[in-house]
Amino acid sequence: MPQGTPLQVPDDGLSTRARRNRPVLAVHTGDGKGKSTAAFGMALRAWNVGLSVAVFQFVKSAKWKVGEEAAFTRLGRLHDEHGVGGPVEWHKMGAGWSWSRKSGSEDDHAAVAAEGWAEISRRLTEQRHDFYVLDEFTYPLKWGWVDVDEVVGALLARPGHQHVVITGRAAPARLIEVADLVTEMVKVKHPMDAGRKGQRGIEW
Question: Which sequence ranges are marked TM in the entry (predicted)?
Fold first, then answer.
């Protein structure tokens, strides 16, 4: 797309401005690092122009503290107190689920994930936010905890101007098909492959 010129202009009857301002459904998937990081970068841009930002994390334990959460909490406070940027909400939708699967049964986690998606679906219908990050949402879809067709239907039918970014490995083919923007992070090298642990300021 040289100099911002699309390779093909669709015959959809829309003006360039109308086409530019359509809401975006983005998917960040693949085995490489940076899927959530890129989504939070987009959320930062959204906050800066005054959009209402809501983050929903599906896999992280409520006890897991990430740097982005702390930063966006401060940005939300900055908006509330001084009117700068947009409002921010941050929700952890999991019940302590982690890669080690130590807390709760699979049925418990499936139920919590389904409840989390039901809440997001309601908010989409109500147009509660302008910009949604559904962090690691591909995993409940992959595990069958949330129905892919139901999610796709709700995303395609969302009213107004609501952007949605979904992150996680192994995004379902149907989700990739309907998304406007799909980026696959490809792992070339990772410090953990050499036995190095995750570190503060890099992984969280």
Answer: none
- Residue 172 buriedness (CB in 10 A; 0-12 / 13-18 / 19+): middle
- C-alpha 62/C-alpha 183 separation (Å) is 28
CATH class, 21-166 region: alpha beta
Question: Which of helix, strand or coil describes residue 197?
Answer: coil
pLDDT per residue of the chain (204 residues) written in tens, 0 to 9: 456 676 777 777 767 666 677 999 999 999 999 999 999 999 999 999 999 999 999 876 555 567 899 999 999 999 999 999 999 999 987 554 333 344 556 677 788 889 999 999 999 999 999 999 999 999 999 999 999 999 999 999 999 999 999 999 999 999 999 999 999 999 899 888 888 887 877 776
pTM, 2 dp: 0.87
